[in-house]
Amino acid sequence: MSVQTIDASNFKHAIQEKEVTFVDFVTQWCPPCKTLLPILEEMEREEEHRLSVVKVDCSESPEIAAQFGVMGTPTVIVFHNGEPVDKLVGLRPKSVYQAVLSRYA
């Protein structure tokens, strides 16, 4: 399963699909973004009943990045029941993302 890239047309639907959604804000030229993606894909497979992971390409959807104050990539914004509840800037160990998930799911 690969992480779906979303844009303004399907953003609202995507963040309400499951109890918790990680929105990964990326750019194509960002090496840490490429490192983070497999970690998030693995988490989504492991936690498919409660976690959805999607990504937003900041170059293609700068309005969404601006709306949520994304200044650097990767940035993961955590949505719980469709509302933003946490923001993780930069590459973090998988355990950090797991801890955030357990806080909201």
UniProtKB/TrEMBL annotation:
| Thioredoxin domain segment(s) | 1-105
Q: Which Pfam families match?
A: Thioredoxin
Annotated GO CC locations: cytosol
Gene3D superfamilies (alphabetical): Glutaredoxin
Q: Which GO terms describe its biological process?
A: cell redox homeostasis
Task: Quote the PROSITE patterns the UniProt record gives.
Answer: THIOREDOXIN_2
MF annotations from Gene Ontology: protein-disulfide reductase activity
Q: Which family does it belong to?
A: Belongs to the thioredoxin family.
- Protein name listed in UniProt: Thioredoxin
